[in-house]
Amino acid sequence: MFATVACSSSEEPGAGAKKVEVFTWWADGGEKAGLDGLVGAFKTDCADYEFVNGAVAGGAGSNAKQVLASRLQQNDPPDTFQAHAGAELSDYINDDQLEDLSAQYTEWGLSNAFPKGLIENLTVDGKIYSVPANIHRANVLWSNKTVLAKAGITKDATTLDGFFADLDKLKAAGVATPLALGKDWTQQMLFEALLISKLGPEKFNGLWNGGTDWKGADITAAINDYKKLLTYTNKDRDTFDWTDAEKMLMDGKAAYQLMGDWEAADLDAKGFKDYGWSVFPGNGNVFQWLADSFVLPKGAKNADGTKCWLKTVGSATGQAAFNQKKGSIPARTDVGTDGFPAYQQAAMGDWKTATQVPSCPHGSACAQGWQGAVGSAQGKFSADGDVAALQTALAAAAAEFGPKK
Ligand code: GAL
């Protein structure tokens, strides 16, 4: 009887080996548009394989990371997943969940394709564990041009004091919540942008490498400024994802939002044209960077298909197709500006000359335990405004998860 069992083509033995499940949190808007761009390149380069979308919605992986953690624990990894370069990637490396891709770097000529500093963020003990897809900038202030014009704001503020003055002008002009804000990780981003202004890049870096004391008076002063900043934001922030805050900006209910440059792609995908951008006031020429990368998990069902995906991710054509739609810039140094929207063309220029600092909620500065501890401390602060309690919690998180002295 065995020979008579009928199979549809997708059930044929071996058909599963063609599928490549790509796990991300790029489910909608500009993020999905970026992923679609990459999938288009994959279809051309890897016609033997079939892309399977394993996206789990929720900004910054707020849901996806938990789903992924439980799948990895149950030895059911997707064929590849999105992981941030830096400390966050090290989590998976330390847990022995990733294959070494050094041989592929040599085979595909990737070793000199990316900036040296970025490769260092993907390397542990001489082995390289992922292929970077992009560089995003976190410290960007997006604005609704019409709302600013109505309040008589014609120039971007370049200092925190100037920014507070503009926020006051907006309030006086009847904009009740001039600065749109979302939940936990989006609050971490706003606070980090403010810390960069208050501390400067070197001291900001020290927060993550152990050189700066979280208990210092300058941090107390920054938290007090942050508390003031929250008074210009929407009270329902703790229920908002970044796209809900973005909607306030699009609807003209808010004038500003601090968000990574995936917002450029998302505003474009949603057809909203009336937006401006500037670096967060007081950040000067600091580029707060993060990078999405893709990995080959140990135990992936289709390692060959994943390698084809990774090769596309690392290729110049794959990086152009992806980044033109994603709001980010190519991690490769040899992709030209042709075909990129104005925002990314400007970011490509800034990246070359700016001072770089990492981001905690997006993994370049801290691993997931630290991200979670900071996120819950800030969530609590959003509700109670207790400056001393936030500073104590941030110092405790650094002591627990930061570099040991
Ligand atoms: C970041 C990720 C970006 C973007 C953003 C918002 O963590 O690196 O690519 O997706 O979250 O979801």
From TrEMBL:
Would the keyword Transport turn up in this protein's UniProt record?
Answer: yes
For this protein, the record's SUPFAM superfamilies field holds: Periplasmic binding protein-like II
User: What keywords tag this UniProt record?
Assistant: Signal, Transport
Tagged with keyword Signal: yes
What InterPro entries would the database entry show? Answer: SBP
UniProt family annotation: Belongs to the bacterial solute-binding protein 1 family.
Protein name per its UniProtKB record: ABC transporter substrate-binding protein
Query: Whose protein is this, by species?
Result: Catellatospora aurea
